[in-house]
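Worked problem 6 (solution included).
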Amino acid sequence: MSLSIDLTIVIQLIVFLFLIGLLNSFLFSPVVRLLEERKRRSVGTLEEARRLEEETLKMIEEYERKVKEAKVLAQKERARIRQEGLERKSEIIDRAREESSRFLAKVRTDLHNQAETILEHFRKEGKVIVDEMVENILGRKVA
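Solution. The predicted structure is:
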């Protein structure tokens, strides 16, 4: 058995090469292009998803930072308002003490003046009563 190359093999080889070229043009090349396009879109979509994820993480970090800043500002504002309230309370108490001290001093002065007036009145009345008693006892007018 010997192998010899005859014309049928050459024709089959030519037909085979022709079919490969034809299949390459109409089947393999379009399929490869579709696969490459699909891969390109997938990679683009993945990159877009990564980019969106990074943006989302940045936005979350920014939101958390702003929330922390807002809490700090709120605490500072609360402390400031509390301090103002304490100062206002002190001022009101001091003013009330001053007013009550002035009022008490005025009342004491008024009471002292009234007591002096009453004592003076009793002294005068007492002298008149004593003089009348002496006149009644002695039966004559005392000078």
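Discussion: DSSP finds one helix and no strands in the chain.
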